[in-house]
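Exercise 7.
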Amino acid sequence: MPAENEIDPSESLETFIAGLVRDARKQLGWRQQDLAAKVFSSTTRISAIENGDPPDLKLGRQLDQVLELGGKLTNLLVIRDRVAFRDYAQGFLRDQARARTIHEFSLVVPGLLQTPAYARSIMQLADPGGRTDIEAAVRRRIERQTVFDGPQPPWLWVVLNENALREDMGTKAIMREQIERLLEAVELPYINVQILPAHRASIPGSVSLLTSPSGERTAYTEGFGTGRYMVEPADVDRYQRIYDRLHADALGIVESQEIIREALGKHDD
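Solution. The predicted structure, written as tokens, is:
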């Protein structure tokens, strides 16, 4: 187990979080093993957090509650994750996390439905130089799927290009796991996936349309290495029309599920 080192909270956001957790724990008179038991974690993990290795968002929320931090830790973790994304994506990811309704068209399985292995394969393909901390990026992407864990999950409607089911992203095993995840997801009452047949006209990128709890609508489009987040009504309307045309060409819900099941057999070893 790592030693309890002296840390400088002003050195980085990670060390500030470490100091916040350590000080709150000590103020309550708990040992690291006491805190670990209260959040169903390990003493080693608590020690690592207090030495500058922040928790994921799920553990962060638990620590926030038991340490009586009033949401401070959760907010810091959200801020930390946002700055790891390119500027053009930060506003979208912030609003996606609190959206009431999400409509997406994608050439690949969208992030909210990806498995860790599938996400890792996509990220490795897009970063051949290895400049990105892939594992941290995968962890952040999967953590965003916790939006479905609350009492009022968002309504997600995906139009997915059929080629996303045909191509091996990494290995056949990775694709089988991902397609199985899709089949599990569409059994949920708030997730729908419709397949756009490969022979139908498409666009060279993704489109996401968000509706906030207040009814405000925004749009995000992304291609390879670039993206744009739009809040102006005229821009949102334009991409709504693009999405509507793609949606009109997509297969129905039942037929789409059959296509997904058929794709599972095409990725046998």
